[in-house]
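Notes to self, Sugar ABC transporter permease:
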Amino acid sequence: MGWQRLRHIGRNNVSSFTEFGTLVKNRHRPKDKPKDTKVALGFLAPWLIGAIFLSLIPMLYSLVISFTKYNMIKPPQFVGLMNYRHMLIDPRFLSSLKVTLTYVVISVPLQLVAALALAVLLDRGMRGLAFYRSAFYLPSMLGGSVAVAVLWKMVFGSDGLFNALINLFGASSSMSWIANPDTANWTLIALHVWQFGSPMVIFLAGLRQIPRELYEAASVDGAGKWKQFTAITLPQLSPIIFFNLVMSVINSFQTFTQAYVVSGGTGGPSDSTLFYTLYLYQQGFASLRMGYASALAWIMVLIVAVLTGINFALSKFWVHYDD
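result:
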């Protein structure tokens, strides 16, 4: 009896170990893909096809033809680094780079300051917040349009609204600010600063995430509004400031419509509004120098990548992330 009972227990243990081994084996076996995967891939397919055929392949093709002489009529002719070397002696390339860098360095900080200031004002819980938020965001939606660029050209013309305001305050001005090489770029800088709606909305969302207890504790300790802003608001918002900074720099380098409309596509007067993208357009579609235009495009990508890398490298000194 004892032996039979022991053998019965052994059989059960063997069966248990067999089942356990099967479970372990099945545990490491890759699971079958869910049926929903095919559905998900079906929804992603249009985007993937568009990204590959409308973005990735054209980008790679532009890199190839940047080493060629190509006018879209004759087959591309390989010229090596000639297009890139030509930039070093091309005065209009250097002028467009100077105009664009001036535009970026001045307009981006001014736009972010204006956006942050208005976001702080709107964060005080005033009535009609939704209306003001929409109203201030509207320029960001319209600022890049042809209609607004034409309107801006009229505002800063010799008989425009800007001169009318100057004359209203007792001064006398009949100058066309758009047609003056010393002020033309500044009018476009003002247009860019006016489009502060998008970073303002992002700043406003970030301000809503800052705990009110921090301000209450600072008030108890005797900190004033400015001290609270510099010691609490700015450090807490630093990741959002960094995000807006990077995106604004990238978007500023892509400015084209405003300069094209204001200057009539020439970049004038005296190349004062010859933005990098406008010069690229002139070379590619006006002069049919597609090889040189492609080289210009890749240099712009390199410049933006370097500036973005510098921003990321410097961010560790002033951007604070909550642990």
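- The two ends are 67 Å apart (CA to CA).
- The domain at 91-316 is CATH 1.10.3720.10 (MetI-like fold).
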